[in-house]
Every structure is written in C-alpha cells, then in structure tokens.
Fold this protein.
Amino acid sequence: MRSRLFLTLSLLAAGAQPVGPQWAQTPSPGSSAPASKKELVVDVDLVNVVFSVLDKKGKAMVDVSQNEISISEDDTKQRITNFTREADGPLALALLIDTSNSIRAQFKVEQEAAIDFFHTTIRRRLDKAMLVSFDSTVDVLQSFTDDADLLTKAVRRLKTGGGTKMFDAIQFACLEHLGKEKGARRVLVLISDGDDNMSFEVLNSAIEAAQRASVAIYAISTNTSGFFGMSAPKNDKTLKRLAEETGGRAFFPSKIDEMAVNFQDISIELRNQYSLAYRPENRRRDGSFRSIKIDTTRKDAKVFHRKGYFAPAS
C-alpha cells in the first residue's frame, strides 16, 4: 500500500519534535499549518502490514521484538523500516451479521454476544465501529460511531429473513466504508454460516476488496451442523479462506454458547497486534499482486497477516 510519510519540523526553542502517530495527515487544501511549525513533505512508497503473533494455544504473544521478525515479498527478503506494537492504536471496525433465514435458530445468542463485544472493545474517542446486516439486501444499521449504546440499539433492531448476500456485504463494507478510514487498523468481523446464494460478487472478489482496503477479516461460523458435531466443509472453507487471505482468523464454535468466547478472543488479539512497514525492492508501479510472508524466530509461534497487496499503478 502506498503511504505518505510526513516529517514535521517544529521550530521551537527545544529543537525538533516528532509528530504524533506514525504518519501525520496532510493539511486540507486551503488550510494553513500552525505558525510555529513548517512541514517538509517527502513522498515515499511504503507497504504497511498489521499482524498477530500467537502461541501454540492461540494466545497473543505481547513481547515480540523486531529482530525476531522478518518479511519477504515474492520470496525476496525486505528491510523493515518501521516496527511498532499496536496495543493502543485506534480501530475502525465493521461488524457484519448474517440475518438470513439460515441463522434464525441461534440469532438471539448472536445479538447478545455482539452487544458485549461492542462494549468491551470500542473505546470512546479512539475507536469506531459500524453495524451492517445482510440477507437478500445489505443494510447499514449504524454508521461509524464510538458510542457502544448506539451500536447496541442497532443490534436490537436486527431481524431475520431472506436470502444471503455475504460477498456483496463484504465488498461494500471494505470499499465504501472501512477503506476510507485513515490512520486506524481496519477490521471486519463476520458472523455467518458462510453460505451465499444471492451475491453479484464471488469469494475471490470479496477477498480482493478486503486486500485493496487493507482490511483483516475475522469470521465466526454459525453453521448449525458444527453445533451437532457434523461438518460443513464447503462453507467452513469459505470462512477460513476469507480470514487467512486477509490476516484475520476464523472460528468454528462447537456450540452456540462459545460464540461469546470467540468474540473475546478477537478483542484480546486486536489489543496485542504489531505493525511493520518496508519499502519494496520491487519499485515497479504495475498494479500487480505481491505476495507477503512474515516469519518469526519465536519457537511454537504462528504469525497471522494478510497474504499480499496490490502495487500502485501509475
């Protein structure tokens, strides 16, 4: 992904001071910077990757250092220029809930788990979340807000019925909403059985939309077959691929009551992520897809990250 790196030089008696977060925002056209500061803008191509490191029990590892991490692009090792832990970084989160007829039986449990997730995850004046429902239509029930009470009211308004436009909902949330949120980690939490019978989009285009918008998808399956010890291989594979290709995780609870635990696991993981940036060795602006691989020297650890990005096209 392309970022602009802004170096702000403060003309203060104490000398140069760094600017807030990793990347500052450029002033809007016609605006003026504060009189005490002058901005030097340097245009740099950087690829930014958010990732999680989990132990063999699936718990987030919170003390990983840069020298324990390496990254390759298309099998060529890259030099890491930025490395930070994202414990306190802002979140832009979209919760997508399947309200089709196929999930009617467990719907009330999903609602309560979603409400608890919003209240335990969203921090006022820092994070923001939105709620999207999908069945035969895709509907925004609550646009981005940091108010968990507003999100709760929206969850209470959910009603079941109709077919399933899961892929359309994913693309819509990624490109029309999450992709426009600057300066925050972009996360989509999907609650569905993985079935889709009405979308114009397909699995690959939904994944591409998430990759282009730098959105990580976390999926919680509501397959009723799983609750009874049976398998739903096709739909489960769909949810798993959505998560793996975008840097999230897929959860397959054996009973509906475990959904609240899955939400909690996602919340904890989002507070213990890392981000790195590198300037690709491949400088071509050809719009091609570049594969990414992050490795760690930590024993019994697994890294979860998006599998690649689309290079800018000039």
Q: What stands out?
A: Residues 107-121 form the longest helix (15 residues). The chain has two domains: 5-83+277-310, 91-270. The longest strand covers residues 47-54. The radius of gyration is 20 Å.
